[in-house]
Amino acid sequence: MPKPPKIPESVLVVIHTPELDVLLIERADREGFWQSVTGSKERVDEPIAETAIREVAEETGIVIGGDLVPSDALVDWHHHIEFEIFSTWRHRYAEGVTHNIEHWFSLQVPERLEVTLAPLEHTAHLWLRWQEAAERCFSWSNRDAILQLPQRVKERCR
Hints:
Blueprint: E1 9-16, E2 21-27, E3 34-35, E4 37-40, H1 48-60, E5 74-84, E6 99-108, E7 122-129, H2 130-136, H3 140-157
Parallel strand pairs: 1-6
Antiparallel strand pairs: 1-4, 2-3, 2-7, 5-6
């Protein structure tokens, strides 16, 4: 049975430490393509915060809602963008779907945690200072989100 088409609504979760070290993961299907956690809704009615929590656990093994990473460490930026899906990945969506809506989140973890990658999705991970992490990302939206991180964290601390 073929996989159902992807839902063109996704999350981007920038995982970072209090010192603004950012976790990047390398795509298994594209060597050198570094990114934050991303992923699409599994169901149209899946709440977007649930998508973020699920994707973080699936892609990194980091469980949100425990002692190490409490639920309030996940911050919904209440910001989304719409972008054209790279032609390389359009076959995963229903025919005629060309754009995706991406919701931005951040997740503060207490330190540079060890992660457990989903081997079919990612092959390596790095913790980098936020500026270097932004430079390493292949996606303009991921780069922009990381560049906004210092201000977003500052605003949350007020």
